[in-house]
Amino acid sequence: MRLAQWYEKIREQFNNDGIKVVFKQPSPSSILPLVHVGPHTDLDVSTKTATLNEVDQQINIWCESTMAPADFEDYVQKVKWSLSKVGRWDNLTTQTMFDDSSGRDLRRALLMITITI
User: Could you tell me if 79 and 92 are in contact, meaning their C-beta atoms sit under 8 angstroms apart?
Assistant: First the structure.
């Protein structure tokens, strides 16, 4: 599988599960909640084997800070469950925080996922 195909599967699965996903940096006025996936390219290849075998992918989940903590945790779980339908991952870590870097008070979950292509 090519990396681009994995991103296409993410888009399709998230859409099927009712999760808004974007692949470009969201604007400060974006309607939340949303998931931001900053894609790599298939050109990010190993200099030794000329193939892309493993990818560390950052996925950001953004929600309004007014969302109840339990609802936010449920939404993060929904995103992880949807990701699990796309395929196996080697490693997944999650960190949650408040973020005001966009000028808005937001809840943010940072997922770091490692996949083998």
Answer: no
